[in-house]
Amino acid sequence: MTDYFLLDVFTDLAFTGNPLAVFPRAKGLDDGMMQAIANELNLSETVFVGGATGQHRYPIRIFTPTEELPFAGHPTIGTAHLLVELGMAERDRPLVLEAGVGPIVVEFENELARFTTAAPFSSLPSSLNRTAAAELLGLGAHQVLSEPVLASCGLPYHLVELASLEALERARPSPGAWSEWVSSSGYDQVYLYVAGKEADASHIVRARMFSTPGGVREDPATGSAAAALAGYLAQNRGIGRWRWQIEQGIEMGRPSRILAEADRTEDDLSIRIAGEAMIVGSGTLHLPSGLTVSREAP
User: Fold this and answer.
1) Is 121:271 a contact under the CB 8 Å cutoff?
2) I want to staple 225 with a disulfide (CB 3.0 to 4.6 A). Which of 21, 144, 152, 191 is the partner?
3) How far is the C-alpha of 181 from the C-alpha of 124, rounded, in Å?
4) pLDDT tens by residue, 219-274
5) Taken in order 209, 214, 215, 217, is the CA torsion positive or negative?
């Protein structure tokens, strides 16, 4: 048997935000078992925390129902909040989570956990152009404002800027067009956003994220996509400190709030993602006969 916790992330209200399962004492689980557990729970991501490698430092593994991810935002935020609640980390000290992209430093400010991305921002042309993006989403070409890009802070996303909230709400990805334009690129994540026209350095962005495999599915809050978007927006806005409140999951009935910051200098671009989380449940998983898991505190 092994214990786990359920959290809602990027929210302060139960049954909103993005659900997450975290196994805080997963030492002893092998890769196949972690993947099987993630498939069984069937959440967008499940996190397995290994034994401590130092003070306030833990390795983590992040799995979707079908694959392991090197990095994901809402698992990072949710795991950090849980480790504090369990007394495995302290709110007034930085926490380091060792993920596939490298060590991620998480700091706490009141009810927020905030991490700085470990992987540098990068962007490339997307396999989508404006016409293809409109076809993919069932929209008119005029509703796609600019040429899509492929942006990443450890996990790549096709970023598609839409003209209005109405277009965002109407977007319905076509599986056929997805296979032709998205899957062919090798990157099956599309992040739609409406940035607005505000000239100030802090404003609200509305977003939706779709991904595969297992059919095209929507995600209610995606921190890694928010990081990629923040990097892209900051790159286009120039030197300075930029802040956004990214609202996602509204169309799914699971509203989420992601806080993104980007500091751009002449030589560097630093991106931070922050959010709240709350524990909504806990349970015990009965593992197959013969498999034991270390009960040591990490």
Assistant:
1) yes
2) 191
3) 15
4) 999 999 999 999 999 998 889 999 999 999 999 999 999 999 999 998 899 999 99
5) negative
Does CATH place domain 2-118+278-285 in 3.10.310.10? yes
Q: Is 220 helix (H, G, I), strand (E, B) or coil?
A: coil
45 is annotated as an active-site residue: yes
C-alpha 145/C-alpha 163 separation (Å) is 6
pLDDT in tens, 102-112: 999 999 999 99
Q: Is 50 exceeded by the pLDDT of residue 14?
A: yes
Q: What residues contact 219, with CB distance under 8 A and at least 6 apart?
A: 18, 44, 209, 210, 211, 248, 249
Instruction: Tell me the CA distances in angstroms from 236 to 157, 225, 230, one per residue in order.
Output: 17, 17, 10
**For 122-275, which CATH class?**
alpha beta
Helix (H, G, I), strand (E, B) or coil at 221: coil
List the catalytic residue out of 40, 45, 67, 135. 45
Strand, helix or coil at 174?
coil
Token duo for residue 214: 């297992």
**Alpha carbon distance 30, 21 (integer Å):** 17
Q: What is the pTM of this model?
A: 0.93
User: CATH 3.10.310.10 in the chain, residues?
Assistant: 2-118+278-285, 122-275
